[in-house]
């Protein structure tokens, strides 16, 4: 975080916007939140203690004006944003102009995120990745916590990688759960929490499975990287899993020390892999 | 169903074993049920009104003896079988010999089904596909019921085909739900009912999505074809979907007339596609 300009934080769901806000505060960097209503968690945004504007997803014009007024030059987009239907979007003029160019079909396409990044940059902002703002949040290679995966766990991870890559190649999901070679579940838009809850019910007798999270090939690295946190470790343990494998350099570990402590406490491994 | 020999029906879950039994009765063909405990539905098996032996999955030796005693020469395998863990399997000697050869890893692999078919044939039985026993149960090409899919529905079907093929190529799942270009859900082992229930909760505003079911490339066609029935149509309607696309010649439509009637009543389309 070398620049001292005001950082614009475009905030989707989850705890990540709060973590970025806390990092800015601890480094004394000015920051401004642009929270997406219906996606950002009001409690997380309120607790961030930063100036904030709320906009709907369809209010790109208003959002750009807010960012300019706050003196923002650099923007980070953090936290999941459920892609809306056109009916929910109710686009303002600026948003409609964007979709007139990229096509409404983009609403169902991950190419949308790349287009959004390009659009923000066309307004003169610089879009940076969360890993440039939150030091050391990218998953590292190798074992991060817990016991070493045994042969079955390694085989399950390898199978999960094959499936996650096939899914990623068609722009779907980032997470797969494999137990004893069998794919228990595959994530689309339901989120990892729901995936894990379902796989807990579907698990077979014998040794537990693994959660594999990769970024999609060609995924815009500055937005929407897969992430794990303490809650992911706890949900994985509740689902009977033996560990979590994330893509080194391609996934976020939110609260590295806390994640490692939770994994040690619950006896799960966390490993960074290079598929 | 040209042969008049006793048909052995190896019965997994769902209503399919009952349909096959009914077809045999209506044609006066003798048949014998080998029901897999923990998988076959006792109510369906009892209602079939055929001689039956129950075995565990791990009792291949006992199963072969039952089939021989019943004078079976031709065997059909119908209804889903959840793949067991080794702990659940508790293999008998004959089953263990099989796994000693194909490897325990096969438990997590769809190649297992092909190996099972080969094993049954090595015992002198002929394995036939359910479509050779149930006349006219294979999905046909073109619109089977309901309104014609509009442009968005056609686009959603095309997207579903791309994702289902990618999944099938890595030997996972057969069903995908797509709404307005967005993949709402992907089926692993949870079953289509759970997939549909979840996608109903995840659906966005605006026009509803579609369910796409394909067989996997290279799938052993004599076993485990994807199937839809009246319940699938009802669950799809409850999830807010507008229609169902199945692979022509690669999926079963169980109760063609009833499925069409349910689709017309609920306003859903059912189409057979050739991906």
UniProtKB/TrEMBL annotation, chains A, B:
Residue ranges constituting the LpxI C-terminal domain according to the UniProt record: 141-271
Domain LpxI N-terminal: 7-136
Pfam families named among the record's database cross-references: LpxI_C (PF06230), LpxI_N (PF17930)
Annotated InterPro entries: LpxI, LpxI_C, LpxI_C_sf, LpxI_N
Highest taxon in the source lineage: Bacteria
Name under which the protein is recorded: LpxI family protein
Lineage: Bacteria, Pseudomonadati, Pseudomonadota, Alphaproteobacteria, Rhodospirillales
């Amino acid at each position: 975080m070398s620049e001292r300009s005001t950082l614009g934080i475009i905030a989707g769901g989850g705890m990540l916007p709060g973590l970025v806000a806390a990092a800015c505060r601890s480094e004394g960097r000015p920051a401004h939140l642009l929270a997406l209503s219906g996606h950002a968690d009001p409690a997380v945004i309120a607790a961030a203690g930063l100036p904030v504007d709320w906009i709907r997803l369809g209010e790109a014009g208003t959002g750009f004006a807010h960012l300019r007024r706050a003196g923002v030059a650099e923007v980070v987009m953090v936290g999941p944003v459920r892609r809306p239907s056109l009916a929910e979007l109710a686009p303002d003029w600026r948003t409609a102009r964007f979709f007139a160019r990229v096509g409404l079909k983009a609403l169902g396409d991950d190419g949308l995120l790349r287009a959004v990044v390009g659009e923000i940059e066309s307004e003169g902002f610089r879009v940076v990745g969360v890993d440039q703002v939150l030091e050391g949040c990218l998953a590292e290679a190798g074992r991060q916590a817990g016991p070493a995966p045994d042969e079955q766990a390694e085989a399950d991870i390898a199978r999960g990688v094959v499936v996650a890559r096939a899914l990623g190649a068609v722009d779907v999901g980032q997470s797969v759960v494999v137990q004893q070679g069998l794919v228990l579940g595959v994530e689309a838009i339901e989120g990892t929490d729901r995936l894990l809850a379902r796989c807990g019910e579907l698990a077979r007798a014998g040794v537990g499975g693994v959660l594999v999270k990769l970024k999609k090939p060609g995924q815009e690295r500055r937005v929407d990287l897969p992430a794990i946190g303490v809650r992911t470790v706890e949900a994985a343990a509740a689902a009977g899993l033996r560990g979590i494998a994330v893509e080194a350099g391609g996934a976020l570990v939110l609260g590295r020390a806390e994640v490692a402590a939770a994994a040690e406490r619950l006896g799960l491994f966390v490993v960074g892999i290079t598929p």
